[in-house]
Amino acid sequence: MTKYVLISLFLSLAASLSFAQAAEKMLYIPKIETHLITSKYVDQTYEIHVWHPAQKKDGSERFPVLYMTDANAGVPLANLMHYIQGGGDAPRFMMVGIGYPVDHPMGGAVVRRRDLSPTPEIGSGGKNTMPLDGILEIESGKTSGGAPEFLKFIQEELIPFIDKKYNTIEGDRAFFGDSFGGLFGLYTLFHQPETFSRYIIGSPAIAYDNEAALKYAQDFMDSGKDLKARLFMSAGALEETPQHKMVTNIYRLHALLASRPMPEFHQKMYVIPHETHLTVPAINLIRGVQEVYDKPGCAYIMTGCIK
User: Fold this and answer.
1) Hey, is 244 helix, strand or coil?
2) Can you spell out the DSSP letters for 163-210?
3) Contact 34, 47 (CB under 8 A)
4) CA 256 and chain centroid, separation
5) 27-122+132-303 topology per CATH
6) Do 88 and 299 contact (CB within 8 A), yes or no?
């Protein structure tokens, strides 16, 4: 009897150790973290959301970072990324969302136009024209054309903060912006391209200020400099209108960037059927991460692997 008791205890102990070792290898998803950062460049307090990928419990891993604008509407997009990463369609990366201290997704509509537009808009008063309470107003300073200062905030305040606080792979940074966010991404690509190594540009407002973004692109190509980045641009097919010409403009930009070889620059463009300006952002992001990142060849939801 003693022999069987000892064997039983040994097997129980072995099983417990095996379970403990397996538990150590299991992945978990930390809670979303939120920070308020006041920028000296913009005179604005930003609400920064940090979404973590599934990861080892010992905190030993480091991750690339995807920065996105319009984070007040970004929680569903971040949740989608967990499924995409878990299914092996993209590697695991952190997401850092830049938003505003407001109560609803539309609350930053006025100040986002200031931060994301590269040039002043004639007649822009920076006031709320939407029939919604709780929209953050601009009390003083620029009401448009604030992209240079917003980019300084990202480069000199936000990125150092994230790299210091979290286990990031420094230098492996991606950007996602949609509409005016896409316009800001193009401004960054042609003025400070080294800020990010991957650009996901959704439905960019290229028509803004007499197609300023196309002028930036032409100036860059004329300079003889090379881009070193992966770029994905997309738009919904139903976004093509006489006023905005969204699809036409991304075709024009794609062709311009392909007009001379740049060995370390890779671009793809896609027009998404049946989608409008308000239905396409999530698809822009999903297709974008599949294009600017390499597949890890590992679906941890199915297999538990953690490549």
Assistant:
1) coil
2) HHHS-EEEEEEEEEEETHHHHHHHHHHHH-GGG-SEEEEES--TTHHH
3) yes
4) 24
5) Rossmann fold (3.40.50)
6) yes
Tens of pLDDT along the chain (307 residues)? 454 444 444 444 443 333 334 344 578 899 999 999 999 999 999 999 999 999 998 889 999 999 999 998 666 788 889 899 999 999 999 999 999 998 887 888 899 999 999 999 876 555 566 666 678 888 778 899 999 999 999 999 999 999 999 999 999 999 999 999 999 999 999 999 999 999 999 999 999 999 999 999 999 999 999 999 999 999 999 999 998 899 999 999 999 999 999 999 999 999 999 999 999 999 999 999 999 999 987 787 766 676 6
| Nearest of 218, 166, 217, 208 to residue 188 by alpha carbon | 217
Sheet holding 44-51, edge to edge: 33-39, 44-51, 94-99, 63-68, 168-178, 198-202, 229-236, 265-272
How many CA atoms does the CB half-sphere of 240 hold within 13 Å? 11
Phi, psi of 265 (to 5 degrees): -115, 130
Strand boundaries in the chain, DSSP class E: 27-28, 33-39, 44-51, 55-56, 63-68, 94-99, 168-178, 198-202, 229-236, 265-272
Q: Strand pairing partners for 94?
A: 65
Q: Which residue's structure tokens are 């793809």?
A: 268
In the chain, domain spans: 27-122+132-303
